[in-house]
Automatic annotation (TrEMBL):
Domain of life assignment: Bacteria
Similarity comment: Belongs to the aspartate-semialdehyde dehydrogenase family.
Name of this protein: Aspartate-semialdehyde dehydrogenase
PANTHER family per UniProt: ASPARTATE-SEMIALDEHYDE DEHYDROGENASE (PTHR46278:SF2), DEHYDROGENASE, PUTATIVE-RELATED (PTHR46278)
Length: 350
C-alpha cells in the first residue's frame, strides 16, 4: 500500500509552494495526500494531483493513518505538534527551527547526507535554514572531493525570508518611493517613507528599498545575529564537520525571493576552477552558470521559481591556497524550504 503523507500548514506560503511542487512532479509515491491547517483554514478546497482535497483542522486525530508529516509552520507550533504526530505513528519532517540543533534530530539535505534520515531517535527529521540550504549542494559536493576546512560567507537575503510581513513591507516601501528623487544623502529614504505614512517599525530594522541592511534575525552574543549563527552551526551538522571554522555576515537586500551567498571556502587539498566546474556539473541539483567572458553568472531575479541552486563567479582566491570563491543563488521558498522538506520525505520512501 502506498504511504500517506500530510502537510501541516498547507495554506501558508511554504505549504502552497510544496503543493505546487507535488502537482508538478511527474509521479509521486503517495496514496493519500492529507492537507492540515489551522481552524481558520479548515474546510478550504485545494486541488492536489488533479483531485480536490479539503483542508482539515490541526488536531491529534488528523495524524491517524499518516506515515509522514511535513511541517511548514512556525517554531512553536512544530515544537508542540511534531511530537504528537510521532506519537500517532508518523515520521515528522519539520521545516521550522524548533529541532535543527537537537542532537537526537538529524538535519538533512538529501544531496549531502541522505543516510541520516534513518537516524531519528525522536522520530523527527529537521530541514535546515533557507540561507544554509542555498549553499549546501555546492559545499557538500566540494567537501567530498577536497575536504572543507574553513568557510567565510556573506549572504544577501530576500525579503521573503522574513515571511509575508517582509514581502509586504518591501512592496510598500517601493510604492512609497516610486517617482521620488531620494537617496542623495543619508536620511532621504527614511524621511520619504515617513512622509508617505509608513510605520517606522519594520521587520528589517532599517529601510530596505534602495538600501541594504546588514542584519537578519535576532541579536545574539558578541554582536552576532541568529541567522549568522545558524549558518555556522547548521553547516557543521549537515556536513559532519564539528570543527569547521565558519564566519558569516547576513545582509537583507531589496529582493522579494531568492537568497544569494558569496562563499569563500578553504579546503584540505588543492583545488582548481576547472575541478570545481567538474564537480558542480556532475550534480543534478546544481546549475553552473559561469562564463566571465560572456558575463554569465546567476542573479536572484533569474532564479526565482527554480528547483536547483545556481553557481557562478567561481575563482581561485588570490593570495590564498587551496581556496575557492564563488556565488550561489537559491530560491529560498523552494529548495530553501518546501522542496528540501519534500525531498526528505521522498528519500524516506525510496
Amino acid at each position: 500500500m502506498a504511504p500517506t503523507v500530510a502537510i501541516v500548514g498547507a495554506t501558508g506560503a511554504v505549504g502552497t509552494v510544496m503543493i505546487d511542487i507535488i502537482n508538478n512532479r511527474d509521479s509521486v509515491p503517495w496514496g493519500e495526500i492529507r492537507l492540515i491547517a489551522s481552524a481558520r483554514s479548515a474546510g478550504k478546497k485545494i486541488t492536489v494531483r488533479g483531485q480536490e482535497s479539503t483542508v482539515v483542522e490541526l488536531a491529534p486525530e488528523a495524524f491517524d493513518g499518516v506515515d509522514i508529516v511535513l511541517f511548514d509552520v512556525p517554531d512553536e507550533i512544530s515544537a508542540e505538534w511534531a511530537p504528537i504526530a510521532v506519537e500517532r505513528g508518523a515520521i515528522a519532517v519539520d521545516n521550522s527551527g524548533a529541532f535543527r540543533m537537537d542532537p537526537e534530530v538529524p538535519l538533512v539535505v538529501p544531496e549531502v547526507n541522505p543516510e541520516k534520515v534513518h537516524e531519528r531517535p525522536r522520530g523527527i527529521i529537521a530541514n535546515p535554514n533557507c540561507t544554509t540550504l542555498s549553499m549546501m549542494a555546492s559545499l557538500g559536493a566540494l567537501h567530498r572531493e577536497f575536504g572543507l576546512k574553513e568557510l567565510v560567507v556573506s549572504s544577501y537575503q530576500a525579503a521573503s525570508g522574513a515571511g509575508q510581513e517582509g514581502i509586504d513591507r518591501l512592496h510598500a516601501e517601493i510604492e512609497a518611493l516610486a517617482g521620488k528623487q531620494v537617496g542623495a544623502r543619508g536620511g532621504d529614504v527614511a524621511e520619504a517613507l515617513a512622509a508617505a505614512g509608513l510605520p517606522e517599525e519594520t521587520p528589517f530594522k532599517a529601510p530596505l528599498a534602495l538600501n541594504v541592511v546588514p542584519w537578519a534575525g535576532s541579536r545574539k552574543d558578541d554582536g552576532w545575529t541568529s541567522e549568522e549563527l545558524k549558518v555556522r552551526n547548521e553547516s557543521r551538522k549537515i556536513l559532519g564537520i564539528p570543527e569547521l571554522k565558519v564566519s558569516a555576515t547576513c545582509v537583507r537586500v531589496p529582493v522579494v525571493t531568492t537568497h544569494s551567498l558569496a562563499v569563500h571556502a578553504v579546503f584540505e587539498r588543492e583545488v582548481s576552477v576547472a575541478e570545481a566546474h567538474r564537480v558542480f556539473e556532475a550534480q543534478s541539483s546544481i546549475v553552473l552558470q559561469d562564463d566571465p567572458d560572456k558575463l554569465e553568472f546567476p542573479t536572484p531575479a533569474a532564479v526565482v521559481g527554480a528547483d536547483p541552486t545556481y553557481v557562478g563567479r567561481v575563482r581561485q582566491a588570490l593570495d590564498f591556497t587551496n581556496t575557492l570563491d564563488f556565488f550561489v543563488c537559491g530560491d529560498n521558498l523552494r529548495k530553501g524550504a518546501a522542496l528540501n522538506t519534500y525531498e526528505i520525505a521522498e528519500t524516506l520512501v525510496k
